[in-house]
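Hello everyone,

My group is preparing for a crystallization screen and wants a predicted model to guide construct design. The compound we'll soak is zinc ion. Before spending weeks at the bench, it would help to have a computed complex in hand. I've included the protein sequence and the ligand's SMILES below. Output in structure-token form would be ideal because that's what our pipeline reads.
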Amino acid sequence: MGKLLIFVLIIVAIWFFFFRKKKSKEEKIPKEKDSHYMIECENCKTYISKDEAIFANGKWYCSKKCLIDKD
Ligand SMILES: [Zn+2]
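Reply:
Good plan to model first. Here are the tokens for the complex, ready for your pipeline.
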């Protein structure tokens, strides 16, 4: 009986892992899975890779400087 309970817990844990992973993937910003995707900076129009870009107020910036100087 104890072994069966552990087996069920493992199945539930695996199911939860995949379910959470799938859900979080859907909630991410589109194309975020591709870190080499190039983003145009809203301020200086420079293209930078997405993993280096800063996302703020629905727009992308190449650096904190551009984020602050956006006006
Ligand atoms: Zn910039």
